Amino acid sequence: xxxxxxxxxxxxxxxxxxxxxLDVIRSxxxxxxxxxxxxxxxxxxTVGLIVxxxxxxxxxxxxGRGEPGTVGGRPPVLLAFNARSSFLAGVHVGVRRTTVVVxxxxxxxxxxxxxxxxxxxxxxALDRIAAAISDxxxxxxxxxxxxxxxxxxxxxxxxxxxxLSRASALGWRDVPVAHLLGDRLGVPVVADNAARTALxxxxxxxxxxxxxxxxxxYAGAGIGAAAVVNxxxxxxxxxxAGELGHVRVCANGQRCSCGKTGCLETxxxxxxxxxxxxxxxxxxxxxxxxxxxIGDIAAxxxxxxxxxxxxxxxxxxxLGTAAAWMVNLLDPACVVLSGCVGExxxxxxxxxxxxxxxxxxxxxxxxxxxxxxxxxxxxxxxAREHASADIRIVTR
Length: 396
Known about the structure:
The protein has about 400 residues and is an alpha/beta fold. Helix content is about 45%, strand content about 20%. It has helices at about 5-25, 35-40, 45-55, 120-140, 175-185, 195-205, 265-270, 270-285, 295-300, 305-330, 340, 345-360, 375-390; strands at about 30, 60-65, 75-80, 85-95, 95-105, 110-115, 145-155, 155-160, 165, 170-175, 190-195, 215-220, 225-230, 230-235, 335-340, 365. The radius of gyration is 24 Å and the shape is elongated.
């Protein structure tokens, strides 16, 4: 091995060791250099050098002294992670509105901005989203140079590398969102779809905490699914795993936005459920002007409205039948129902579970605990992991 190769290996090892030390400090309220050395298996002098580097970069600070050891001696100096040393941003691009959150380096949200989802061509829309991120960062006294990573949740098919293959509701096709937004901000960007981001949040913070094998069915403006197998999100060869909304459930059904007919999305998405409710209510009796929301339909079902109960039941059975295929294939410990339709209450969850277990083994069904916050929480988690994997030090 030449001198250059040895130097390169040494530099990589230092970066890895630095990331390991930083992760230990970040995961505890306060820790001494000796405790860090014990937790990482690194030599104390190595830990000392890395800690000095992290303190110089502003990522770590001394926060006091601990208790002296049992054999006496000076109390150890305690170190803590500086959560304001860098920031994360999460973006949820919805069909109608877009929400931007800026969080500290631990993922704690600090400021939120909501706007109408930008219309028009992708470059102009991404300009507005980048400006919203910069504005939110400025709201906590940070420039974009202090953002370690950005996570973006997109409504559609998101392939490997943050490529938005298709978002029919936005009229976007083959848009390299992660690349384009990263160029505008000058920071790393990771992008994924709603189902995978919601599932990541639910397994870390919500209804499926601690589970290592989970399926999530996301029923909202669109329908998708996601899976965690042995603790890892499943993306597939091209990043398109989980497109449950475009499996055919009706032989002679309606035409879907994807071009096929009879897709699950045509009978169980938010638009499908709302259209069915509005049409049946109109035939039965005059109702207030305007389309109902999923919340209106869920409330009506809870109050005993038979039409609302029937419509949510039909959607639940269709979703459950499709979910059974995933249960049979992946053998999860639980299934999470997410998205505004999936969270519509017992009128949907009951028929969903009944239909699923009639075609697959019984499995625990849980409804999202994070609701609308799931996508943004998932994107902040992805952004944090992306920043850690990049092993960068962000300085002012």
